[in-house]
Write a structure and sequence with these properties.
There is one protein chain. This protein is α/β, with parallel strands linked by helices. It folds into two domains: 128 residues, 3-Layer(aba) Sandwich (Rossmann fold); 189 residues, 3-Layer(aba) Sandwich (Rossmann fold). Strand 1, helix 1 and strand 2 form a beta-alpha-beta unit. Helix 4 crosses helix 7, helix 8 packs parallel to helix 9 and helix 9 packs across helix 10. The longest helix has 19 residues. The protein is elongated. It starts with a strand and ends with a helix. 49% of the residues are buried.
Length: 348
Amino acid sequence: MARKIRVMIVDDSMLIRQVLVKELNKDPQIEVVAEAQNPIEAKPLILKHQPDVLTLDVEMPKMDGLTFLNILQKFYPVPVVMLSTLTSEGSRSAMEALSRGAVEVMQKPGGGSFLALNRSMEQLIFKIKAAAISKRQNYSPSPVGAVPPAPIPAVKDLIIAIGASTGGTEALRVVLSKLPGNMPPIVIVQHMPEAFTAPFAEALNKISLLDVQECGSPMDLRPGLALVARGGKHLTVTKKMSGYLALSQEGEPVCHQSPSVEVLFNSVAKSAGVRSIGVILTGMGSDGAHGMLAMRNAGAITIAQDEESCVVFGMPKEAIALNAAQKILPLDRIAQAIIDATRAKIVG
């Protein structure tokens, strides 16, 4: 029998700790080995129990989660899942945590129905399991002020669709920071809770020449626009008389995810077909694999991130296994591959 994932909980709320201990221990693959109410109390317990994954509250007395995360990255680089409140400040702190080395972010399980709690815990368990098999990566987005990528010739009716999960927030920063500002419209699904997608889009917008926004509904697609799916809603693309329309829609989770890469890729395959490019980045699970195959079968150019550069080689692995990916590349070559594929569609 495989060893259980050893989890430690650091949170100043006794109620949250009790809920997490009870619910996480129900999973046969997880064992909560320790809990602490603040980072000061947590330090000796981490050394004693050597957890595989840490859940860490953003806001705590004595030392906040971001400060403690910095210390962990230097002295005990355990994979961390950050838990945040739904406040604006909490959401932005969670985004900052991802840039500082946290593997995943998650809304704190709170009040509401048992169904809401079950769904929340299902997501947390998924993220803990992803964190447990994650690899540390030192991604390097292009620095602000660097020589900007050269514009490309105008391309008509082309769509670029990108899907990512664990590790994808930083991978997307790398890719988008290296793309020209006049790229064809880009639609993105990054597995992320609702409260975090708007701050994430804002963060991407600051490091990219593209106009990066969270997707409202409906939104016309245009060159230079990159849309990030809103957390909790599926992002789809439909064909108009002239151009394409992006829609943000309610729907049951697909591949346990909402938004789902599978839903996005299938809609792009149907609406754009040969006039599309599909990219699948680091992430756990299989979301998007069959959708990418549908895109390839429809004539799209498809690209998958390679195993060595992934934080978690799950989604790309599944797409590759289906022969859905035409190109398998390290992260630092994917932006140029997208540019090259776009140029190929000019003459294709």
